[in-house]
């Protein structure tokens, strides 16, 4: 229905569409049913910046993200060895052990800092994932916890889990994702960010911290 409304074809029988109308409708339907972005990888290759500009101009109705997967992999491997401090998607990284890095490795990190992050703010890999999940697919990140005071699970781990749910999902939907048994006897939930008691049909928001309350827990 949304595709029909946007294309202005609501009152016309689909069997009577001409070629232009069929293309217009199918294009809009694809955009809604299969949201897409373009990841312009290998932005670290000489001349790639010009190709990136051409891509943006050619696909000006789509999101085009410049990315360097090779740079991201380099940073993650260095971070795993405690050579640098870096969080995926971050705009910066800090070198921790300069004396353990070769000149070639230092040059590579300098290139990433100046030519990739300096020009495009980040490597683009995590950013592309975030845009896909939260903007295109309209997902919300929800943190379910068992202990409302410590914001932890039953083992004492603080905010151990993250559940991705579609925008408009309710407390019941969260319970189904965590464990199907939680739906049985589900009474309400506690929104721990705002210290509110919310009903089972409450629509969850991004970054909500939720404690599910069922008959057995009460």
UniProtKB/TrEMBL annotation:
<dbReference type="InterPro" id="IPR004095">
    <property type="entry name" value="TGS"/>
</dbReference>
<protein>
    <submittedName>
        <fullName>Translation-associated GTPase</fullName>
    </submittedName>
</protein>
<dbReference type="Pfam" id="PF08438">
    <property type="entry name" value="YGR210-like_G4"/>
</dbReference>
<feature type="domain" description="Obg-like GTPase YGR210-like G4 motif-containing">
    <location>
        <begin position="39"/>
        <end position="147"/>
    </location>
</feature>
<dbReference type="InterPro" id="IPR012675">
    <property type="entry name" value="Beta-grasp_dom_sf"/>
</dbReference>
<feature type="domain" description="TGS">
    <location>
        <begin position="160"/>
        <end position="212"/>
    </location>
</feature>
<dbReference type="InterPro" id="IPR012676">
    <property type="entry name" value="TGS-like"/>
</dbReference>
<dbReference type="Pfam" id="PF02824">
    <property type="entry name" value="TGS"/>
</dbReference>
<dbReference type="InterPro" id="IPR027417">
    <property type="entry name" value="P-loop_NTPase"/>
</dbReference>
<dbReference type="InterPro" id="IPR013646">
    <property type="entry name" value="YGR210-like_G4"/>
</dbReference>
């Amino acid at each position: 229905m949304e595709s029909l409304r946007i294309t202005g074809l609501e009152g016309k029988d689909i069997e009577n569409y001409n070629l232009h109308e069929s293309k217009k409708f199918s294009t809009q339907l694809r955009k809604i049913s299969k949201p897409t972005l373009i990841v312009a990888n290998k932005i670290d290759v000489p001349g790639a910046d010009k190709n990136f500009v051409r891509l943006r101009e050619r696909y000006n109705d789509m999101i085009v993200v410049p990315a360097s997967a090779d740079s991201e992999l380099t940073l993650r491997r260095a971070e795993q060895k405690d050579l640098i401090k870096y969080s995926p998607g971050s705009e910066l990284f800090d070198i921790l052990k300069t004396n353990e890095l070769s000149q070639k490795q230092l040059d590579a990190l300098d290139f990433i800092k100046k030519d990739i992050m300096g020009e495009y703010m980040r490597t683009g890999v995590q950013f592309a994932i975030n845009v896909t999940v939260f903007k295109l697919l309209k997902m919300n990140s929800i943190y379910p916890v068992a202990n409302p005071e410590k914001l932890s699970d039953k083992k004492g781990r603080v905010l151990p889990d993250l559940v991705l749910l579609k925008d408009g999902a309710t407390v019941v939907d969260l319970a189904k994702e965590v464990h199907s048994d939680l739906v049985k006897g589900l009474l309400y939930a506690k929104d721990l960010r705002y210290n509110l008691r919310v009903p089972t049909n409450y629509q969850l928001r991004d970054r909500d911290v939720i404690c599910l309350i069922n008959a057995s827990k009460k």
